[in-house]
Amino acid sequence: MRLLSLSFSLFTFILLLFLSQSHASSQHTNNWAVLVCSSRYWFNYRHMANALGMYRTVKRLGIPDSNIILMLADDAACNERNRFAGSVYANLGRHLDLYGENIEVDYRGYEVTVENFLRLLTGRLPPSFPRSKRLLTDSSSNIFIYLTGHGGNEFLKFQDNEEVSAHDIADAFHQMYEGGRYNEIFFMVDTCQANSMYSKFYSPGILATGSSVVGENSYSHENDYDIGVAVIDSYTHYVLEYMEKVNKTSRLTMADLFTSYDVPKIGSHPGVRSDLFDRPLGLREALITDFFGGVVEVDVDGEGESVPQLFEDLECPPVFKEPTPPPIKIYSPPPPTPVSSTSLFDEYPFLRPSLAFVILGALFAFVFSGVISGRS
Length: 376
Description:
By secondary structure, the protein is of the alpha/beta class. It has helices at 2-21, 45-60, 114-122, 166-178, 234-243, 254-259, 263-266, 289-292, 344-347, 351-375, and strands at 30-37, 68-72, 107-108, 141-148, 151-152, 155-158, 162-165, 184-190, 206-210, 220-224, 229-233, 271-273, 295-300, 305-310. The protein is built from ten helices and 14 strands. Strands 3-2-1-4-8-9-12 form a seven-stranded mixed beta sheet. A three-stranded antiparallel beta sheet has the order 5-6-7. It is globular.
């Protein structure tokens, strides 16, 4: 019996090892960020600081400008009422200029509309639109979508002129799902009654969080009396404060981020929706860098092998030049045959459980033969 118990324990360990390996690697090969400040005018300075703070964070963690879509009214830095011309700050000490010299605003001013936002998500853009205004994602893309502005129950205002509803965003996400435009989406919104904005989602692979429940306002964090207005919202401030602990190789998870929410400090009740987010281990498996870190799909030797790699301190996308004719060579040795990084188990997933059951059969045969020989 002791031998039988030992054999069963060994089998259980091997089976769990095989099954866990099948989910060990993330299924995405590139990360994108869509950051939207839906407000304009000087008194909404804090909303622009919210979006620029998120922009700085995703760039710091490795997502290049080529994979960031920033929608911003962009009327604060050079506003005539700004005592610190060309700068946007999010704290009283004004230690960090969020505007600086290295930001790329893709949709500016009156380009920040509901129509352009929904067309961006679904890919329904005119052929004349440049690459910088396109969300060039695919079924292997993880997308971080951040919205900030004035809103209410199931709507977000765009520049005090129009509104996008929770239904609009939910339907746009479903079109993206049907079109194979994402692997997973992390949706974050900071506005009044923010949690209502993700209440209508119905497509798989979406994780969502918001700053306040239905019937509750979201509040600014602090005022700068030299600037004359509030400089950042409370929820975004504490999220960005937590994100300063994260680096490109961090193992902190989305569960860690959500656990850090402190209602008395934030002044509202943030919410999380994860029922559409299908991972075997849930939020404990999803790393923060799965959405905020820079990952790129690399084509190895033109053979279509995709290898996820981190951007290391890449400040801007690579510049591609027109190809030049190669020099004349007398002899060129054949290129080495690339070694495939795909394992047999990745190509034939059914082999994992099959092999586990073969091992189980061998163990039981061994135990059974030992019992028979012992009796004889």
